[in-house]
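Work Package 4 report. The design task specified in the project plan requires that, given a folded chain encoded as structure tokens, an amino acid be chosen for each position. We show below one input record used in the internal validation round.
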């Protein structure tokens, strides 16, 4: 199963549209994970319509409409891999141990909030993945998202994808 991991899209606060490359990856994925901070319900509607399967949560910047439609924590099993999705995990220091305790039933934790790509494993094997942000790089060199493959109970081919800088005309899918 082909997976797309994204978070912190912040449309329209940080970008007017989602990057075309990200949307092509959504179309190619069997499952899309979004770890919150949508900001706009139209972005949720767009990804829900374009995704074969969407596993998503709300983030700290998401208002009442998104919070009514999405959970704070989501879980899903994909091809024998147990996923948990949450927006915030707290400080980087101690993250692996803290998350391993909190998400003991998961194989992979997808999270967001920091806009900083992250790929580590906790003692005991929990894989922690933060795909960064496809629209707001903050202090990172690039906007990013991740892809991976889940098959026969294993996660493989985890890749961080760098997006080209946005232009004023910028290719992408307008959400409004």
């Amino acid at each position: 199963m082909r997976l797309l991991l994204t978070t912190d899209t912040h449309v329209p606060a940080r970008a007017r549209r989602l990057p075309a490359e990200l949307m092509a990856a959504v179309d190619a994925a069997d499952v899309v994970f979004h770890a919150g901070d949508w900001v706009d319900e139209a972005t949720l509607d767009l990804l829900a319509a374009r995704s074969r399967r969407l596993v998503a949560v709300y983030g700290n910047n998401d208002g009442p409409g998104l919070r009514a439609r999405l959970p704070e924590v989501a879980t899903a099993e994909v091809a024998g891999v147990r996923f948990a999705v949450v927006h915030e995990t707290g400080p980087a220091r101690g993250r692996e141990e803290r998350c391993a305790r909190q998400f003991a039933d998961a194989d992979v934790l997808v999270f967001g909030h920091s806009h900083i790509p992250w790929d580590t494993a906790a003692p005991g094997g929990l894989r922690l993945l933060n795909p960064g942000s496809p629209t707001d790089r903050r202090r990172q060199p690039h906007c990013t998202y991740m892809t991976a493959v889940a098959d026969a109970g294993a996660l493989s081919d985890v890749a961080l994808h760098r997006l080209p800088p946005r232009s004023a005309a910028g290719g992408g899918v307008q959400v409004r």
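The two ends are 30 Å apart (CA to CA). Validation will be extended to a larger panel in the next phase.
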